[in-house]
Write a structure and sequence with these properties.
CATH topology of the largest domain: Immunoglobulin-like
CATH superfamily of the largest domain: Outer membrane usher protein
CATH class of the largest domain: Mainly Beta
Number of domains: 2
Order of helices and strands: EEEEEEEEEEEEEE
Number of helices: 0
Strand order of the largest sheet: 1-2-3-4
CATH architecture of the largest domain: Sandwich
Helix content: under 10%
Largest sheet: 4 strands, antiparallel
Distance between the termini: 44 Å
Length: 175
Amino acid sequence: MLGTESISSIAVDGANRKWLGTKNSGVYLLSADGTTMLKNYNENNSCLFSDSIATVAIDNITGEVWFGTSEGVISVREIATSGKEEFQNVYSFPNPVREDYTGNVTITGLIKDTQIKITDISGNLVFETLSEGGQASWDLKTYNGQRVATGVYLVFCANNDGSKSCVTKILVIGN
């Protein structure tokens, strides 16, 4: 995957994904099994000061990933955090979601590998996913790729065997 590139640093996030810092081509994010490249941060496509990476460090509480480059230190906010043993202070942000917001909504305070199902207030399923460690992300779109309408959305969360669960709400304000 990386050919002859020299790896200078390796870090593992809360979803067991691998972050590889390299000598000359920035940072690579690999899947938990290490077989798929998910992202590549470099000078041309990100905020990195340099493609020469000395170190990668991860704050598994916030999901922030720090890159020590030859030109300075910078960080990005990623989704994966360490999952908890119990659901603790589960909430989503931003909430409410304003009409001009274009990013993702994050659901945090989750158990690792939480199954997430998001419904409208009538109970219609609009999205489902699995958490990345202790957080999950929603792009505010339904299965057909359309942004959801104004309304209250319920976020149903359950651990992998269904023995622990919780519910939170998201308010989406449209145009």
